[in-house]
Design a protein that fits this description.
The complex is a heterodimer of chains A (102) and B (153). Chain A is mainly beta. Chain A contains no helices and seven strands. Classes of the chains: A mainly beta (102), B alpha+beta (153).
Chain lengths: 102, 153
């Protein structure tokens, strides 16, 4: 299952994209309460979005972004546009999801 | 003695020259995640490392929507939008977080300057949204009171 949930809607030539990504977003500053060990940093660093193959937004996230991050942005577009959202985290994991604008 | 100094200095200079393009390159490239800026622990230094200067201008055209009191510091909803034209990027700084730079959004011509996310905040702090339009950086700041911090274990 994809880690990305995405919804996008067009109104008056502007598309609003909303996305939820399932990710722990560990800062690296927390301790495991039972063992006292530091939990290693694990967070999304980059999110990238394209509409019909054209770049819309490039996002850089730090560890201060909440767990299971939520994201919304807008762009000039139309119904039926192909939206692509992809992310890469500091451990090299990545995911991509495609969707259509309603 | 003098000659030795000359060689030493010229070598230093050559070293500086080779280091310089590397710095310029990383600043221009959007693809690279700016580790340095995300590591900085002071707001002024952080702003400086992102923009190369500290000339910020408070503007009512930058709209920052954040709660005045956040019950849970682990999830603080932040929305930034602006009526400014030609927006390059939007950055969100949280002054009292361990690293003030929380996130950065590089917009293309297609994108509208309106973004939203959720941030972690360790304690009560000023949140600053910075919008780069042309050569200038416009900001809007709001204090968010945090009753339960979002960074502790």
């Amino acid at each position: 299952m994809s880690t990305i949930k995405m919804r996008s809607k067009e109104a008056n030539g502007v598309v609003t994209v909303k996305a939820l990504i399932r990710h722990p977003m560990e800062t690296g500053a927390r301790k495991n309460k039972k063992t006292g060990d530091m939990i290693p940093a694990h967070y999304i660093q980059e999110v990238h979005s394209k509409a019909n193959g054209k770049d819309v937004i490039t996002i850089h996230w730090g560890p201060a972004v909440s767990k299971n991050p939520y994201l919304t942005f807008k762009y000039k577009g139309n119904k039926g546009d192909e939206i692509e959202i992809s992310w890469v985290d500091n451990q090299g994991n990545a995911d991509t999801k495609m969707g259509k604008v309603k | 003695m003098k000659r030795r100094n000359f060689i030493k200095n010229s070598m230093l200079f050559a070293g500086a020259l080779t280091a310089l393009p590397a710095v310029l390159f990383t600043k221009k490239s959007y693809a690279a995640w700016p580790k340095k800026s995300f590591d900085i622990k002071d707001l002024t230094d952080s702003v400086n490392s992102v923009y190369g200067h500290n000339n910020l201008e408070e503007s009512s055209k930058v709209k920052l929507k954040a709660p005045s009191i956040a019950e849970n510091g682990a999830i603080v909803p932040i929305n930034v939008s602006t009526t400014l034209e030609d927006v390059d990027s939007i950055m969100i700084f949280v002054e009292n977080n361990p690293q003030p730079l929380s996130s950065g959004y590089q917009l293309t011509k297609l994108a509208q300057p309106s973004i939203g996310t959720r941030l972690k905040m360790g304690k009560t702090s000023n949140v600053m949204a910075a919008v780069k339009s042309g050569d200038k950086v416009y900001t809007s700041t709001q204090e968010v009171k945090v009753t339960i911090g979002g960074c502790g274990g």
